[in-house]
Every structure is written in C-alpha cells, then in structure tokens.
Amino acid sequence: MVVLVTGANRGLGLETARQLARRGHHVLLTSRDESEGRAAAAALAAPKLDVQYHRLDVTDAGSIAALAAILARERTKLDVLVNNAGVGSRGCNPEMARRVLDVNFFGVERATDALLPHLRDGGNIVMVSSQMGELSVFGPALRSILSQPDLTRDALDELMRSFIRDVELNRHTKTGWPASPYRVSKVGMNALTRVLARELSPRHIRVNAVCPGWVRTDMGGPGADRSVEQGAAAIVWTALLADGGPTGGFFRDGIALPW
Ligand code: NAP
C-alpha cells in the first residue's frame, strides 16, 4: 500500500512512517522543513525501507498544490492519508488561535481536499486527534451544533472562524469556547472527520480520528505516560482498517471513544 504521512520528520509522524514501512508499505514521508524531512526519510530508507520524501506544509497552498501535481504527474495513487501534522497551544490569544487553527483544522482540511483526487476509492484517511478535543469542554449551544449528525462543512468552517473572531474580541469564554485553541482545533478535527466520512462514503473511503494517548514527543513532553512507539501503533491500527471497517469514528488503541 502507498501511505502518505504529514508532519513526519519527527515525533509520532516519523514513528508512524517507520512502523508502516517496516510492514512493507511504500511510505511518502512529508514535512514542512525539507532538510529535516529528507534526513528523516534517508535514515528510514537506509535499512532498505521503502520511503520517499516530499515537502508539504499544510498551511501553504502552494506547497500542497505542488505535491498534488507531483502525485498526478507520477500517477501515484494513495491508499492511506495520515493527517498527523499538528501544533500545540499555550495560552489563548488571537495570534495563537489563528496559528493553531490554521495548522490543525484548516491545514488538515486544505491538504485532505487537495490530495483526495489521488486517494484510491476504498482507502483510509486518518485524523490524528486528541482526547483533549472532547465535546464536554464546550458550552451547551456549541456542543449541540457540533454534534448535529447533519452538520455541514460550511457551518463547521464558519464555527471555527467564529472561535478566532471571539478570541480577537476577547469574548470566547462568554460564548462557550474553552480557552484553548488546541482543544478547539481537535474538536473541529473530530467534527470534520464525521463530515468527510459522510461526504466520502460513496467512494467507500473510511475517515477516522485517532487519539494516540499522551506521548513522549516534543509536543507531549518527557513526562507523558506513553512511548512514541505505543502512540504510533494506535495511529497505524487506524491507517490499516480494511474494507467494511468503521468510518466517522474516534479511536484509541482500536477502542471507540466518545467525543
Ligand atoms: P511533534 O513532535 O511536535 O511533531 C509535530 C509535527 O507536525 C512536526 O513534524 C512538525 O514539523 C509538524 N508540523 C507542524 N506544523 C506543520 C505544518 N504547517 N505543515 C506540516 N507539518 C507541520 O508532535 P507529536 O506529538 O508527534 O504530534 C503529532 C500529532 O499527534 C499532532 O497532530 C498532535 O496534536 C497529536 N497528538 C499528540 C499527543 C502527544 O501527547 N504527543 C497527544 C494527542 C495528539 P516541524 O518539525 O517542521 O515543526
């Protein structure tokens, strides 16, 4: 199978790429920093793993279009897209809200839409999310909008933009948002998972979110309770779901989570 992993120069993305390549899959390792990504891909390819490097910054429409053009030119069909790239947030201010949502929500949406024509029918899309993105941290009005089974993509995009506006106007807690752009971005990602699962069901593409647990990476920090190998194994499980497997779900270690 051909698997594309975003944000794979370090952390969970790199380990996910390694585990998938060790299982014999052809891995397209992508990163926003070309020299770091090339070095990571070369290190994996050295013990003869089937890994190829491409640049991809999910916030940069030009970089996404360039990768889509390469896939088209090389007639590469992906079996799996792993949306792993992400950033954390400390505190809550307008700049942080814009940046985190741009990578973790709009970046994922942008990259997925552009790569979709290159994904095989019957393939898998994995959204690397977090239990930090539980709906319970939202006010009741937002919770009810986000959990509507027929939530549209436009309504979801607008809701995410309204969080940024509310932070800019310093009224986000009054309007029911948690004071954490990271949490908001991951709830948005979980909602996007359900929207995409619905949109892509005619193509039999499964779209699932996964929580890797609290993992010892640069983002998780050294005090986290899980190794990067354990966290990546949860992602790999979701990436390799077979025909007839679940779609629109949220999983950790293969077990369905509420959100
Ligand atoms: P990490 O070590 O900080 O790695 C994050 C990766 O995302 C890096 O490769 C980074 O690239 C990349 N990235 C950031 N912005 C990007 C962009 N605009 N375009 C492309 N790549 C970009 O974090 P991690 O722990 O491995 O996290 C991976 C995923 O797991 C994230 O989505 C995170 O939210 C999720 N997660 C992590 C934990 C945890 O405890 N670690 C728990 C739950 C969920 P650079 O090196 O260029 O910055």
Protein model, in words:
There is one protein chain. This protein is an alpha/beta fold and 259 residues long. The chain has a single domain (2-90, 103-138, 183-256), classed as NAD(P)-binding Rossmann-like Domain (Rossmann fold). The chain contains eight helices and eight strands, in the order E-H-E-H-E-H-E-H-E-H-H-H-E-H-E-E. The protein has helices at residues 11-22, 34-45, 61-73, 94-115, 140-146, 153-168, 181-200, 228-239; strands at 2-5, 26-31, 51-55, 78-83, 119-128, 206-210, 250-252, 255-256. It has an eight-stranded mixed beta sheet, with helices on both faces. Helix 1 (11-22) packs across helix 8, helix 4 (94-115) runs antiparallel to helix 6 (153-168) and helix 6 (153-168) runs antiparallel to helix 7 (181-200). The protein is globular. The two termini are 30 Å apart. The mean pLDDT is 96. Bound molecules: NADP nicotinamide-adenine-dinucleotide phosphate (NAP). NADP nicotinamide-adenine-dinucleotide phosphate binds at residues 6-7, 9-13, 31-33, 36, 56-59, 84-87, 103, 107, 128, 130, 211-212, 214-215, 217-220, 224.
Report how far apart the termini are. Answer: 30 Å
| Number of DSSP-assigned strands | 8
Structural class: alpha/beta
Mean pLDDT: 96
How many strands, what sense, and barrel or not for the largest sheet? 8 strands, mixed
Morphology: globular
Please work out how many helical segments DSSP would assign.
Answer: 8
The tally of domains stands at 1
CATH top level assignment? Alpha Beta
Question: Strand content of the residues, in percent?
Answer: 15-25%
The parts where pLDDT drops under 50 for at least 5 residues are none
Following the backbone from N to C, one meets helices and strands in this order, namely: EHEHEHEHEHHHEHEE
- The strand order across the widest sheet is 3-2-1-4-5-6-7-8
- Name every ligand kind in the structure: NADP nicotinamide-adenine-dinucleotide phosphate
